Amino acid sequence: MGRPPCCDKIGIKKGPWTPEEDIILVSYIQEHGPGNWRSVPTNTGLLRCSKSCRLRWTNYLRPGIKRGNFTPHEEGMIIHLQALLGNKWASIASYLPQRTDNDIKNYWNTHLKKKLNKSESEERSISENMALQTSAARNAINHRSTYASSTENISRLLEGWMRASPKSSTADFLDQKLQNRTNDHMDHHNQFPYEQLQGSWEEGHSKRINGDDDQGFGVPKKISVNNVSGDHEDGDDDHDHNTPPLTFIEKWLLEETSNGGQMEEMSHLMELSNML
DNA sequence: AAGGGTCACAACCGCTTTTAG
DNA sequence: GCTAAAAGCGGTTGTGACCCT
């Protein structure tokens, strides 16, 4: 038959995680690595279901997560990607490696949706006067162009994003937290393998970006069909080693930045994305 | 200062897909 | 190949913080 049940539902704790629970979970993952979530509650004694442990790790405790305000660049990326991919938050998050899908989803629901609705209605009132086309695709394109022309030096930001070592605020925070709370127990700077965890995670991300991961996200793969050929054959070995090749969307963002608009190309892209 | 409204975000719920037995 | 649990994902909710009157 199937697998044994992961955890019985009786006695499962719900609600916000306490710092103590966080420490237990992080310590366990430090030792055993992420994965095999079924065994986490049993082995740690946490009164949480495996699902809750996984979510807590991926959305909050995982190293490399950037918290706090979204940069205009990130905001623009999300708007772009949402217009292209829809509410595929996990796929969108794969292009923003320091943000979680949950974070992006929350930011979209609380900030960007309202923002776009507002500007959309403003645009609609203008377009009524000017008798412009008001198809959703064109609206989306206009939003993107506004974004692109208003953000400063996106290509630099993107480059920074691609190269940034996610020595994260989360890691620092946890380091600090662990140090504060369990000062007597361990030497965190030596024992906490953030670099290892980050490394494996980055590798995974890089694979996804490159489309090498057979079990990776479907959407970027689809997009890679349209990928500009020659990305990998540009001959810059250092680039290949240090930064993943640019995907279709990343290239597009860079090009848009340098060319401030490209409405026709965008229309074409929207048509393409609608076909996918 | 107090109370009501709004916002932001962590966490949960439920559905779908993947995988182990 | 089938079944059932694990894992993944998107939608929704609960709650604390903040703002306004």
UniProtKB/TrEMBL annotation:
<keyword id="KW-0804">Transcription</keyword>
<dbReference type="InterPro" id="IPR001005">
    <property type="entry name" value="SANT/Myb"/>
</dbReference>
<dbReference type="GO" id="GO:0006950">
    <property type="term" value="P:response to stress"/>
</dbReference>
<keyword id="KW-0539">Nucleus</keyword>
<dbReference type="GO" id="GO:0009737">
    <property type="term" value="P:response to abscisic acid"/>
</dbReference>
<keyword id="KW-0238">DNA-binding</keyword>
<protein>
    <recommendedName>
        <fullName>Transcription factor MYB60</fullName>
    </recommendedName>
</protein>
<dbReference type="GO" id="GO:0003677">
    <property type="term" value="F:DNA binding"/>
</dbReference>
<dbReference type="Pfam" id="PF00249">
    <property type="entry name" value="Myb_DNA-binding"/>
</dbReference>
<keyword id="KW-0702">S-nitrosylation</keyword>
<feature type="domain" description="HTH myb-type">
    <location>
        <begin position="9"/>
        <end position="65"/>
    </location>
</feature>
<feature type="domain" description="HTH myb-type">
    <location>
        <begin position="66"/>
        <end position="116"/>
    </location>
</feature>
<dbReference type="GO" id="GO:0010118">
    <property type="term" value="P:stomatal movement"/>
</dbReference>
<keyword id="KW-0677">Repeat</keyword>
<dbReference type="InterPro" id="IPR017930">
    <property type="entry name" value="Myb_dom"/>
</dbReference>
<feature type="domain" description="Myb-like">
    <location>
        <begin position="62"/>
        <end position="112"/>
    </location>
</feature>
<dbReference type="GO" id="GO:0005634">
    <property type="term" value="C:nucleus"/>
</dbReference>
<feature type="domain" description="Myb-like">
    <location>
        <begin position="9"/>
        <end position="61"/>
    </location>
</feature>
<dbReference type="GO" id="GO:0009733">
    <property type="term" value="P:response to auxin"/>
</dbReference>
<dbReference type="InterPro" id="IPR015495">
    <property type="entry name" value="Myb_TF_plants"/>
</dbReference>
<keyword id="KW-0805">Transcription regulation</keyword>
<dbReference type="InterPro" id="IPR009057">
    <property type="entry name" value="Homeodomain-like_sf"/>
</dbReference>
